[in-house]
Design a protein that fits this description.
globular, 6 strands, Beta Polymerase, domain 2, six-stranded mixed beta sheet, alpha+beta
Length: 98
Amino acid sequence: MLLDVHELLVITDIFVIASGNTPRQVQALTDGLEEVLGTQDRKPLRREGKDDAQWVLLDYGDIVVHVFDTPTRDFYDLERLWGDAPRLDAQLPVTSET
């Protein structure tokens, strides 16, 4: 989920909210995102929660990524908390490895 928070916050423009079912999935999502953004010379300004893998926060300045495990995402419910923020449609390319 992508939330456009630029009119609600002065510290960032976009929240990315994702979740995995297990700590391993949360870490894999986080690692994959950091790898992809690293190829674009983007490195997080701050990283929190990676060891626990319940709620990982990656702060890229204009974009803040939240990767949750499912129970933690349900508990904090950022989509409801930031319900005034417009949701953005992200069309991500689908690739397959052969």
